[in-house]
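Good morning,

Attaching, inline, the backbone tokens for the sequence recovery test we're adding to the shared suite. The designed sequence is right after.
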């Protein structure tokens, strides 16, 4: 017997017996009378389940947002403390300090300010994604100078970056500033999640109507059960309380959203203990 509510099937009622003629006509009539009530009860149970799932989802999102505010506050504190501490040192003791020390303090203030700038930039991008206003303006672009600049900015003694670019490369249909941002994000993750002394490789190849750009590190890798979530908003494999590295957990989310806006794709391949490889495929300009 189908259970129908408002013209929609919500279930089936089946009553069996091993005995022949177990259900005399009056018993059948009685069951028939109960069918609408049973259908309503089943539908209520279904609706209740759905409501509960929606509520749980909402609570999780709210919790995520509370955690995010805590993470942002925590991440802002370190560079701000550094800027104000070193700034005060300069203001009060500049006359007693030698030039090298003053230059070193200036560099530290600059580095912390850069970190704050990058965080503010990421937060602005995040809010633009949420409001649907994040934009990229693809145009035929020679990507080599952009990649070289990103590599120069991110390379240091602890993490030499090896570049292998196919020459000549066709122009890509990308927004140059956004590509710079994407590569900067991938390289800073590669540095952050791999031990000092291990190389990072950037390989670029033309592949049909795309340019494949890979950033590979030999770091800690990403556990298999978490890999599908690295592009999710706020996702970080390690909990904020036990994390040894900084970050807001929105870099790869922004990278994915930017790629989508340039008709590019991004994928990740990783093995714990061996390293991680991100591959972006950029459309070739025609
Ligand atoms: N190269 C990488 N190696 C290992 N884990 C990575 C790598 N890149 C990203 N991840 C994981 O993905 C998470 C999300 O990255 P991201 O969105 O850039 O946030 P954040 O860098 O602020 O933590 C990181 O916290 C980390 O757990
Ligand atoms: Mg990051």
């Amino acid at each position: 017997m189908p259970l129908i509510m408002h013209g929609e099937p919500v279930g089936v009622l089946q009553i069996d017996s091993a005995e022949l003629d177990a259900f005399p006509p009056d018993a059948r009539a009685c069951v028939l009378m109960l069918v609408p009530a049973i259908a309503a009860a089943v539908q209520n149970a279904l609706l209740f389940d759905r409501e509960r799932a929606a509520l749980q989802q909402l609570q999780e999102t709210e919790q995520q947002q509370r955690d995010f505010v805590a993470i942002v506050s925590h991440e802002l504190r370190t560079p701000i403390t550094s800027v104000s501490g070193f700034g005060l040192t300069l203001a009060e003791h500049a006359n007693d300090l030698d030039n090298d020390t003053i230059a070193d303090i200036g560099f530290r203030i600059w580095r912390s300010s850069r970190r704050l700038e990058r965080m503010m930039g990421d937060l602005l991008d995040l809010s633009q994604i949420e409001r649907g206003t994040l934009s990229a303006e693809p145009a035929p672009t020679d990507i080599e100078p952009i990649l070289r600049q990103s590599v120069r900015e991110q390379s240091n003694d602890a993490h030499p970056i090896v570049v292998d670019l196919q020459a000549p490369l066709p122009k890509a249909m990308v927004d140059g500033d956004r590509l710079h941002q994407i590569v900067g994000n991938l390289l800073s993750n590669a540095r952050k999640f791999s031990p000092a002394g291990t190389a990072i490789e950037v390989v670029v190849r033309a592949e049909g109507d795309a340019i494949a750009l890979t950033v590979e590190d030999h770091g800690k890798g990403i556990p298999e059960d978490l890999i599908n979530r690295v592009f999710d908003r706020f996702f970080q494999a390690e909990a904020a309380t036990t994390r040894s590295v900084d970050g807001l957990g929105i870099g790869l989310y922004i990278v994915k959203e930017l790629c989508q806006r340039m008709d590019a794709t991004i994928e990740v391949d990783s093995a714990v203990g061996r390293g991680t490889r991100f591959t972006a495929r950029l459309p070739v300009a025609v």
